[in-house]
Amino acid sequence: MNRRLVVVLGFVFVLISALGIEKAYAEDGDYPNAHLLVNANWVEEHVGQEGMYIIDVRKAGYDQGHIPTAVHLSIDKLVDKDHPVEGYLISKRKIEQLMKDLGVRNDQTVVIYDEGKETSATRLFYALEYYGHDNVRLLNGGYQAWIAAQKEVSKEVSLKSKGDFKATIKKDLMVEKEDVKQMVGKEDVVLFDVRSPEEYKGEKVLARRGGHIPSAVNLEWTTVLKDDGVPFFKDAARISKLLEGVGVIPEKSIVVYCHKANRASHMYYTLRLMGFEDITVYEGSWIEWGNDPNTPINNPSKQEKGLRSL
Prior knowledge:
Layout: H1 3-24, E1 37-38, H2 40-46, E2 52-56, E3 71-72, H3 92-102, E4 109-113, H4 120-130, E5 136-139, H5 142-148, E6 174-175, H6 177-183, E7 189-193, H7 197-201, E8 217-218, H8 236-245, E9 253-257, H9 262-273, E10 279-282, H10 285-289, H11 300-309
Parallel strand pairs: 1-5, 2-3, 2-4, 4-5, 6-10, 7-8, 7-9, 9-10
């Protein structure tokens, strides 16, 4: 074999290998905060390592199979059932106890996954960040990605020793109803409604009143995920275009809300992934705002009905 042929074949081999790597890591997407999103290969490499803690927050299926060493947490345990607003996040004291019982330590890297196209993993991500645990990551594509990559599945229930989780509240990550009232119409603030267009327009009503907070923009939370197979996050360029299309840009303060803050947590995570720094979640969301007869609302559905009746 002559030298030129060897060089050519070597180049072809390198090219094929590079394409294979690109395919394997295509879901990584070149995000500004890419460390927040890990793929199945990364998780597989770190399973069982000291300081690595994996939490499965799927609604069902843990007993039938899960990522090795993962512990299960029902996302319902993050709900404060004593709070007057339905679905509200549990208190500092309660999350400390919950995480300690689960075995979480402050010095651990926590990796969370759900089925894939859900909000459970991001809800826990937001809760942990709000309560001061900075080293939290999500498995891109969730359990669907793990299965699609043909990774090892375990049925063994992982028993962990008691953790030492200590919470420190980051108050700048959450806003209340009275705060939001002051933000309506402000040029430097984007009220970001991530519910369905039908909820935003008031066509689908899940509270006493339908519609949206005045001046809020709308982009449904699922639009940042791929819809062809495993629900990986779209790449950074595509997500950025979607966000810019509704006026969500890093230069402004972004306040995210949905119905009970679950979908809002998914967009909160997306914005963190995209490098946004000034992001807060309206924890009460529409379940609070829409049920309060004294809060202002826009209801395009009613306006359209009125116009048609003229």
